[in-house]
């Protein structure tokens, strides 16, 4: 299903997104009509719309369009809200100022997912603090990592940084568990993830540079975003990491303990 401003999407209206890939989005997990971190998702969309289009986005309209798309469907869904301007001219992107709201949905996969094996890549996403639709670089490096026998890529500071520092994955934030059992979030230019923000509210943590050379000092590591929840990282390049750790244990007070629903679609 694809709804544009609450109506079935006209393929012609989506040409600008397909041909220019200029826009931004957020991905929500809906569990039985409720969304974890709904307020944070709406804040992200409003904030990024100012950056990408220089326009104000109506969060109430977003809520209503999500409700229209979800309807009375039970269970778990992944809903993506993409903001685009159908009138975008590739020659004059500065004229794009009429944001439209595209809502698509798909069934959510079962959680937790198996551990990841990741390959470090020197790369920095464009405008890293915006969740934009420009995914080519991230997906290209993911593909290359998979062709090399890994599951995904872990980005580290690009050249000419002498000592590469970990930042994030292509579509997820990375967290590490130090010798004291505390979560360490990389101090880097990364996407401010909604799930990462919720976990920071609930669990002891610190933010610090994470040099690649110091990865062997960590007890465990994980990837996190709305769609995957918390997913253990089993290996970084040739370094093996524990995938069973008290901090990662379901229901054990660690980062796997999910926050409860904090919002939902508006009432009828």
Give the N-to-C terminal Cα separation: 21 Å
Quickly name the level 1 CATH class of the largest domain.
Alpha Beta
Spell the H/E element sequence: EEHEEHHEEEHEEEEHEEEE
**Principal-axes shape call:** globular
Please bin the fraction of helical residues.
10-25%
Largest sheet: 9 strands, mixed
Low-confidence stretches: 257-262
Total domains: 2
Classification by helices and strands: alpha+beta
| CATH fold type of the largest domain | D-amino Acid Aminotransferase, Chain A, domain 2
Tell me the number of strands: 15
Describe the structure.
By secondary structure, this protein is an alpha+beta fold. The protein folds into two domains: about 1-105, 2-Layer Sandwich (D-amino Acid Aminotransferase, Chain A, domain 1), CATH 3.30.470.10; about 115-250, D-amino Acid Aminotransferase, subunit A, domain 2 (D-amino Acid Aminotransferase, Chain A, domain 2, Alpha-Beta Barrel), CATH 3.20.10. About 20% of the residues lie in helices and about 30% in strands. The protein has helices at about 15-20, 40-55, 60-70, 135-145, 195-200; strands at about 1-5, 5-10, 25-30, 35, 75-85, 100-105, 115-120, 150-155, 165-170, 175, 185, 205-210, 220-225, 230-235, 240. The radius of gyration is 19 Å and the shape is globular. The two termini are about 20 Å apart.
Secondary structure topology:
Blueprint: E1 2-4, E2 7-8, H1 15-20, E3 24-31, E4 34-35, H2 38-53, H3 59-70, E5 76-84, E6 100-107, E7 116-122, H4 136-147, E8 152-156, E9 166-169, E10 173-177, E11 183-186, H5 194-202, E12 205-208, E13 220-225, E14 229-236, E15 239-240
């Amino acid at each position: 299903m694809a709804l544009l401003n609450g109506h079935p999407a006209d393929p012609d209206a989506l040409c600008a997104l397909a041909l220019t890939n200029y826009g931004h989005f957020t991905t929500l997990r809906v569990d039985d009509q409720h969304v974890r971190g709904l307020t944070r998702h709406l804040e992200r969309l409003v904030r990024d719309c100012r950056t990408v289009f220089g326009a104000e986005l109506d969060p109430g309209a977003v809520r209503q369009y999500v409700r229209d798309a979800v309807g009375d469907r039970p269970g778990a869904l992944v809903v993506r809200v993409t903001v685009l301007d159908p009138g975008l001219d590739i020659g004059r992107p500065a004229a794009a100022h009429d944001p439209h709201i595209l809502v698509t949905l798909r069934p959510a996969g079962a959680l937790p997912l198996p551990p990841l094996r990741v390959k470090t890549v020197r790369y920095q996403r464009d405008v890293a603090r915006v969740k934009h639709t420009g995914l080519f670089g991230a997906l290209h490096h993911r593909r290359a990592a998979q062709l090399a026998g890994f599951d995904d890529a872990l980005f580290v500071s690009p050249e000419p940084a002498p000592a590469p520092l970990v930042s994030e994955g292509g579509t997820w934030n990375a967290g590490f568990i130090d010798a004291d059992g505390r979560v360490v979030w990389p101090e880097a230019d990364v996407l401010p993830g909604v799930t990462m923000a919720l976990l920071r509210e609930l669990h002891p943590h610190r933010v610090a540079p994470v040099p690649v050379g110091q990865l062997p000092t960590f007890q465990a590591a994980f990837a996190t975003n709305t769609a995957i929840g918390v997913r253990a990282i089993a290996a970084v390049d040739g370094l093996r990491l524990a995938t069973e750790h008290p901090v990662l244990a379901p229901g054990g007070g660690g980062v796997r303990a999910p926050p409860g629903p904090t919002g939902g679609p508006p009432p009828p």
